[in-house]
Amino acid sequence: MASHNMTWLSYPSKNFASTSPEEIEAFIASQNIISRLMHCYIAFFVPTGLTAGICILIVFIKNYLQHKSMEQLDLLLLHFTISNIIMIFLSLTVIPRPDYLKATRLACSVLSFFFNFSYFNSQYVLLFILLILLLKRFPPRTALCKATQNPVSCVAFVLIFAFCLSLTGAVLVGTDNYHVETECQSDPLFARPEYEITKFTFGFGIPAFLQILSFTVLFAKKAPAEAEDLRQHIRTYAAVFIISITIFICHLFYNVMILFRTTLKLQKSIGTPTNELMMNIAEIVLFAESCATLVFIFCFHKPCKERILQVIHNCRRRNSTHNHLEIPVASTTPERTSQ
To answer: Taking a C-beta distance cutoff of 8 angstroms, is the pair 204, 252 a contact?
Structure first.
C-alpha cells in the first residue's frame, strides 16, 4: 500500500503549466463544463429536491398526526428523506466550482464525516426497505423477518452502523497537517487510498451486491399462491424500485471514479484535467441523485401521490364552484299599478 504521506497530492488544475494551445483550450473547456454543471445543479436540482423533501416530510407528519401511527415503509422512507435533505445541504459546498472550497484539513475531515454519515445512511436504509418489500411478498419465517417488524430498531441499527463507518472514514482520511488550509471536497483528495477502498467496499460493493440479490430473489423465486401478482407488487411500490435503480447507476459511476482516483494515487500521479473533470461530474451526479430520489418518492409513493391528487381535486372543486356562482339578475317586469 502507498505511503500515508499525501502532501504531494494536488489538483491538476492547480498545477497546469502546459504551453500547448490544444491543451490550454481543453483545460478551459473542462473548467467551463464544471462551472455550467454546478450552476445547473444549484439552479434546478437543489430547489426541486428541497421542495420535494419538505413536501414529503409534511405528508408523513400529517398522516402520523391523523392516524397516530406510521407504517414500517413510511418510517424508513422518512429516515431516507431526512438523510437526502442533509446531503443536499452538504452539496452546497460545490458552489465555488470550478475552484474548490478552502478549509483546513481538520474542517475538511469533519465535512467528509457528515457527508459519509448521510451517504451510508441512505444506502443501508434502502436495503432495509428492499428487505421489507421482500417480506411483503414472501411469508416471514426467520428471526430476521421478525426483527424487521420493528422499524425503529432498523433505523437505530442503520444510524449506529453509518456512524461507525463514517468515523472509520474520518480516521482513514488522516490527521497529518490538520491545521494546513487546503482545497476541500466531500471525499478529500488528500485522503489515504485505504479510505477510498473502504468507502467503495462498504458504501457501494456490499450494498450493490445485496440490492442485486434482493432483485434476483424477487424476480426468480416463486411467490406463494396468496401473494399479489409481481407486476402489481412493482406498481404498488414503484417509488422504491425507481430510486433503487437510480441510486445504483449514479453510485456506480461515482465509485468507479473514486477507484480510478485511488489508482492514480497508488501510481504517484496527480492525473490530468480530464480526470479532474470526470471526478467533478461524478460528484455532481451523486448530489443530483439525492434530489432526484426525493422527487421520485414524492411523485410515486402512494401516500404522497394520494395527497397530490387530493390537492388537485380540491383546487378543481374550488375553481368549479367559483365558475358556477350565480349572479342575481334584477327583475325588469314593470310593477302593476293598483286600481
So the answer is: yes
CA dihedral 193, 196, 202, 203 (to 10 degrees): 180
Rounded to an integer, what is the distance from CA 104 to the centroid of its chain? 26
- Give the separation between CA 170 and CA 180, rounded to whole angstroms: 17
Q: How far from the centroid of its chain's Cα atoms is residue 7's Cα?
A: 31
pLDDT in tens, 8-46: 777 888 776 666 777 788 888 888 999 999 999 999 999
- Residue 173 pLDDT > 60: yes
Q: Please choose, from the candidates 52, 111, 15, the residue with its C-alpha nearest in 3D space to the C-alpha of residue 307.
A: 52
CA-CA distance, 214 to 287, in Å (whole number)? Answer: 25
C-alpha pair distances (Å), 16 with each of 13, 26, 100, 276, 299: 5, 11, 15, 12, 45
- Gap between the Cα atoms of 302 and 235, Å rounded: 10
3-state secondary structure of 99: coil
* Farthest CA pair distance, the chain: 119
CB atoms within 10 A of CB 28: 11
CB-CB contact of 57 with 300 (8 Å) = no
Handedness of CA 37, 34, 207, 156 (dihedral sign): negative
Spatial distance between the Cα atoms of 295 and 309, rounded to a whole number of angstroms: 16
Q: Tell me the torsion sign for CA atoms 248, 250, 254, 259.
A: positive
pLDDT bracket for residue 254 (50, 70, 90): very high
> Minimal CA–CA distance to 176: which of 9, 2, 4?
4
For residue 161, the tally of other CB atoms under 10 A from its CB is: 14
